[in-house]
Structures are given as C-alpha cells and as structure tokens.
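A reminder before we start the practical. When you read a complex entry, don't treat the lines as separate problems. The point of joint prediction is that each chain is placed relative to the others, so the output describes one connected object in space. Small molecules and nucleic acid strands, if listed, are placed in the same frame. In the example below there are two entries. Take a minute to note the order of the lines before looking further.
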Amino acid sequence: MKITGLETLVFGVENLGDCAQYLKDYGLIAVREDAQGGRYEALDGTAVELALASDPALPQAMPNGCLLRKTVLAVADAATLDAIAAELGKDREVKRLADGSLESVDDMGFTLGFALTQRRTLSRAGEISNLPGSPFQRPANHLGVDANVGQIYASTLSHIVYFVPDVAKAEAFYVERLGFRCVDRFTGVGPFLQPGGSLEHHSHFLIGAPAFMKGVEHFTFHFTGPNEVMQNGARFIEKGYQPFWGPGRHQLGSNWFWYFNSPFACHMEMDADMDLHDNAWTAREVPMGADASQAFLLGYREKWMPGPGTSENGDYA
Amino acid sequence: MQTAHLPLCHESALAEGQALGFDPDSRGQDTLILLRHQGLLHAWANVCPHQGVPMAWRRHAHLNAAGTHVQCHAHGALFDRASGLCVQGPCLGQHLWRRDVVVDTHGQVHWLRNAAHA
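Here is the predicted structure of the whole assembly.
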C-alpha cells in the first residue's frame, strides 16, 4: 500500500482566532479562513484544518478533550485508495466522501481519511553546510543565514504522535492492515512507523498510555534544516509562545526538534532533517531515557554579546 | 523560615474569570499563575503535576478556551480553578501547587514566598 505520509490534520476548536494566529506565527499559510474555520498550509500544500468544535460536519470528538478530529493520510494513486477501501471494508465502515477521499477509523478510535495526495513538489533545497572539499556546498555568494528574513514557512507535514491504550493492537493495525513498518522502537513505549510509500524515518510514533490519555502527544511540520528550526523557534518564543523541549536533536530519526505548548491540547513541534530508511534497515530497539532521546539539548537564550555591562560570570551567569 | 513578599500586580488587574502569568524571580519564564474565580484570587505554581513543565501556550494563556479551567497546554490537562484538582488529563486526580498571596491595603497583590519555594 503506497501511503506516502500525512496529508492533513483536522482539529475542532472553540477559539478559532487564537488557534489560527498560532498556526500563522508557527509558519503556516492561511489559504481559507472565515468564521467557521480555515485551512493552513505548508509550502507543499499539506495542512492543518480548523473548524468550530460544534461543526456537525466534523467526525465525532473523542471524549477526553483531544481536539484532533481526523488524520488524513496521503496516497499516491487511485489503486491504493481502492485497496485500502477493500482491506478496511472487511471489518469496518469505509465512507467514500464527495471529494473522492475515504473515511474510516483505526483500531484505537482515531478517525482516518485517505486522499490522493495534492502535495506540491518543493523545488527548495534543504540547508547545506559548506565544508572545504565537500561535493555538497552552497553556490558562491549564497548566504547561510539572514537574520532579517521575513516569516519562515514550514515546508511539509512531517509526523504525528498518538497516545494509545494498546500499543500492540494499534501497531498491528497500521502494519498489517495499512502496510506500515516499524523503523525503530523505544522499549515499553512504542514504535516509530513508516508508511510503505515513504523513506522517512516515521510519519507516526505510538506511545502507550492509559485510556484516559488517548489522543495526540504532538504533531510537526518539517523545516529546511536546523537554522530554520532555531531561527523560527526563537522568534516564536519572542512572540510569547511557550517552549516545552528543545532545541535539540533526536537520536532515533536524527531529526532536529523544538517542541512548544499549543492551543490544540498537545504539543506542536518544529522539526528538520529526518533520516531516510529503506528495506535494508534493521529496526533498533532502545530503552527510553533522556540519553537515548537526544544527542544533545540546548535552550533559548536572549541575544547577548560580550562587552560593557557583562556580568562577572559572563553569558552563563 | 523567612518569607519574602514579592509584588505581583494590583488586584484590579484581574477581572472575574481572568488569569495572568508572573515571573516574580525574573527567570525569563512565568512561574506563577494568578486568577480570579468567583471574586477570589487564587495563585498556582505554573508547573504541571504530570511532567513538571510550564502550562500556558502563549504568555498569560492559562485557561482553556471556554475559560472554565486552568489548562496545561502540554497535553491538555484541565484543573479546577479554586481547588487545583486535575479533572481531565494525564495527571487526573493530582493537584496544582498552591502559592500564597495577600492583598495589602493599597490593593497590591504579593506572593508570600517562603524558602520551600526557592
């Protein structure tokens, strides 16, 4: 099954204006916005959609405060859509919506959509570090950073992390029914799952949790590299948003991360530079812990330079 | 145990149903939440009992969208404004840590910080 990743996440919220401003400050572009909701896209067209929590067109809310109403997965072709409809139709309802997409539910109760991807291919490069002799360098006169650059925009929807009450059952659904595979695993926590049509380390990570926590831990879009994550994250904090964890670099997946609290009852992350894995990869399994979670961890600082007025302990006072 | 009186704001800064964050120790991070509920001021440590982290999603955004509860915007936990009890979320049944505040004759709200809060 050629599921290629995430296409759209749909949230039902009461404070549309706050949520919309958060997404725009994060780096998404409003392509539709009115008193009923909106669509906020990354540069490739993947998106978060907002609707009023009371909107009867939304799939039913989970009973525990989770605001996510639907996770739309991207598929490459109509044959995959048909295959998914046939597979899931064996034991659950599969609706075909007016836009041609499918709607069903996973084994934990998360509403899923499946849609032909509308992702636009991006022509931008990821961030490139110059190193003498390296075959991969920025062309002459291309600057590595612009402190005065305008709004930084997210490139593409990356991954979502669910709290699930039964990891084995949840994982089996994605692996056995939808063709995902486990790329790495935190022992006793859950798997990083890669869909069959992508080489990215994960589009889903599952965390075992009590049933009353069922919902979303975080979701994130990719930025072009660590420079965008840190520059955009620092600006986000300076606008008053609350960081949770980062910036740092994970070990499993190698993705740079910076997590923030959000009005979506979960974290929203900025991430970049995730590893790619193909079938030659053997999944690792490691115990969860601070050392295993990241290669290093930094924190936000106000800008500073040495000079008059410096305290006797310098920057690290 | 020595108690410090740290000024937070004038009590008129908090209308009914409103919450504000404060950084009385100048840490660059709000560590205390002050709110008014049914006329009374309540102060809570800006620390979620689940993972020990700050709870707003944006500065001063400490309540849920409906304004009925303190909310941790890490995972959505909801807390009763007057008792601090978590009624939904990962720390269900646990409580926020109360901070003692006093309003002086001029209407100034002070946090009574003792050594246990240092």
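Discuss with your neighbour: Chain B is about 0% helix and 35% strand. What might explain this?
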